[in-house]
Amino acid sequence: ASFFGAVAPGNPVVDSFEAELRNVLGFLRRLGAAREPKRQQHENHRRGANALFNIWIKYKPRLPEWYYNEKLVKVGDSLAQIKEYKLAVSQCYGRYLQQFISVNLDDVMADVERFKFTFFPNGFRDKSAALTLHALQERNICIYQMVCSSDRNLQNQKSLQTCFSVLSSLQLTMQVALPQDNLCWLIHNGTIHIYTICRHLMTRGQSAKVLEYLLWASICMESSIPLLSVHYLTWRATLYAAVSQCYFDCQAGIHGEAFARRGLIKIDELKQLESISSSVPNSETKKIFREATLKMSVMIFRRAVFESRRKPITYHRPKLRVNLKEAQNLPRSCTVTKQLLAEMFDGVAAQFLAILEALSDSSRRLLQASSSLPDETEIHDVLSELFVAGLEILSEAKFCNNIQVHSYRREVRSNIFVITTGEDEVSGDAAMKFIKLAFSYEEWDVFDSALELADNFFQAQDDPIWKKAEMELKLLKLMRPLLLPRKLKHDVAVSEKSSKEAKLPHGSKKKQEVRKDSLKHGEPSHDLIVLATTVFSCVSICHENIQPDIEVIVDVIMFLWQKCKKGLQKIQWSGRDCLKSIHKYKAYQWVQILWIINEAVQKSSIADTNAVMLTEVTLCLTAILENAADS
Asked: Where do the TM regions start and end (predicted)?
């Protein structure tokens, strides 16, 4: 290339090289969007990979080393954008890093000095240092994405080990880059990568192990002078909130609150510096400080609302817990929870966010609450007051139909941290989260009232994205009568007789008679059959964006399976007398529900998260069908 002059556009070698790269990348991009048979897609992908390989071999001796290396990394970035992670690692980042080391890269990551000596022999002032660190970071992210492609829910122990290895590697690259202010952009990118992986691992119950990495990311943001500006404050507060969330997940709420208070002090220090350096803060700066302060205040409130009400062990208070109807008739200013909300937060949107976070518990699922609530009456009182306050906000505030968009979002468990103080609207997804929490905590009066409010809102929306919320509400409404007989035991309203009369829906006496008659003959209730057919229709929808959350689907199907196992106990081991047993015990509909469960499991991604249940359902259905065929 140097023979034809400067290495720039217009040079025939450079132009030919660029044109061939564009063709290959365009071919791979179209291949990813095309819907072809797997065999044809695999063949086309192989052609693209071979073409890229040949380009690198062909032009390596014809181009200057610096230009060739830059293109390796840039093409790797382009491949990562179109989700060709394996190709990016093997043909781009890996090829670039081969100039430093020919053995396994993981062998170098254990020793910082060896790492520096291997990849940065000329020090960090060298022009290629930033490119090398970028290649190392992006290679790690591609490895993580490859793990997610094969094991989205990180069920395999090897997948978890790879994720933690990637985190350690990212931490090392940030450690060597931290003293260099000109590499602050790599520190910022590294914190984003660490946060993304850690949030995913937190959903898999790994909060205790990822805590150190989130702490490291937070300290890195504080240690890099260019990243201490107001521009990066929103992201720094997000990291602080993630650390606090980790502490809460580890049942160390006192440390979560302490770290949030520390974050609040750091925000206040920056605010003071900003007021000294600039004459008049603009509206954008004020908004950034408000949002950052809100995030920390929410994490502080999450523990303070409960701890402020705890009494010494020797303290005895015989007062009974009030229900929703009693609480609504009391004066507004009487509850300590409402007073604390009003003191700490401006606007109902911020108050509603604080309520959601205070009620959230990573170990509590929709139908499977693995963590039991404390026996303290005060804690139950606070929970009731939080739900009553949340319901009042839903009743009085306006619903907004915007979909929350998170810049740094995992599919996972979303914290609705985009609400700013002073707003008087509650988002539809926040309302759905509140309804699910009421269902999980068995707050049936709150659930019914909130359900009616949200149902009216969702039915008035034209956007198909709200169909997902409508289907989730439908599933919850169908679940309620099936769970109510069991849940009534936990209600502590007035008397047992009046409580049952108040809780049961209109016409429920007739339904109970039908249910008792069905149970006497061994048949499933009509509500159970409707629930099974509804969940099957939900998972059969082609568009994943409007399917109910997988957590809801999993919990409903597991509930159906537990009911089905009990209903099929008498016929499951009947052998050649299977048909007689089905007729004797009126189990035709149980077999139908079992078939629906099997189809729903096959259509959804439950097999990835609960392979044991998939095996049990398949074996049970197979045994019944085989025995019926032999009868």
From this structure: none
**Angstrom distance (rounded) from CA 99 to CA 118:** 10
Query: In the chain, pLDDT over 90 holds for what percent of residues?
Result: 36
SS3 label, residue 399: strand
pLDDT tens string 515-527: 444 444 456 778 8
Taking 60 as the threshold, does the pLDDT of residue 405 lie above it?
Answer: no
585-598 pLDDT tens trace: 566 778 888 888 88
The CA distance from 600 to 594, in Å, is 10
Is 296 within 8 Å of 241 (Cβ atoms)?
yes
| Alpha carbon of residue 620 to chain centroid | 33
pLDDT of residue 379: 85
* Between residues 126 and 196, the one the model is more confident about: 196
User: What is d(CA 155, CA 428) in angstroms, rounded to the nearest whole number?
Assistant: 32
Q: CA-CA distance, 42 to 131, in Å (whole number)? A: 32
Which segment of 9-13, 215-219, 300-304, 451-455 scores lowest on mean pLDDT? 9-13
Residue found by looking up tokens 């609450």 in the block: 369
- The answer to whether residues 27 and 50 touch, using CB atoms and an 8 Å cutoff, is no
Of the listed ranges 418-432, 527-541, 544-558, the least confidently predicted one is 418-432
> At residue 364, what are phi and psi to the nearest 5 degrees?
-105, 120
Q: Are 256 and 248 in contact (CB under 8 A)?
A: yes
Sign (positive or negative) of CA dihedral 287, 288, 291, 294: negative
501 CB burial (10 A radius; 0-12, 13-18, 19+): exposed
Torsion of CA 523, 529, 535, 539, to 10 degrees: 80
Say how far apart CA 394 and CA 431 lie, in whole Å: 7
Q: Is 427 helix (H, G, I), strand (E, B) or coil?
A: strand
Distance separating alpha carbons of residues 316 and 386, to the nearest angstrom: 23
Please count the residues of the chain: 631
Triad 471, 474, 476: Cα angle to 5°: 115
Predicted TM-score (pTM) of the model is 0.83
Neighbours of 218 (CB within 10 A): 25
Which long-range contacts (C-beta less than 8 Å, at least 24 apart) are formed by 22-29? 23/51, 24/48, 24/51, 24/52, 24/55, 25/75, 25/78, 25/79, 25/82, 27/51, 28/79, 28/82, 28/84, 28/87, 29/82
The three-state DSSP-derived secondary structure of 505-529 is CCCHHHHHHHHHHHHHCCCCCHHHH
User: Is the model's pLDDT at 161 over the cut of 90?
Assistant: yes
Alpha carbons 134 and 453: distance in angstroms, whole number: 50
Q: Which sign does the torsion angle of CA 39, 45, 49, 52 carry? A: positive
Give the separation between CA 18 and CA 377, rounded to whole angstroms: 71
* Pairwise CA distance, residues 359 & 353, whole Å: 10
**pLDDT in the model for residue 542:** 62
Amino acid at 566: K
166-172 CB contacts, 8 Å cutoff, 24+ apart:
166/140, 166/141, 166/197, 167/194, 167/197, 167/198, 167/210, 167/213, 168/109, 169/106, 169/109, 169/136, 169/140, 170/137, 170/140, 170/194, 170/197, 171/213, 171/216, 172/109, 172/112, 172/115
The closest of 89, 84, 85 to 29, measured between CA atoms, is: 84
Residue recorded with tokens 């695999």: 42
The encoded tokens of residue 603 equal 């259509």
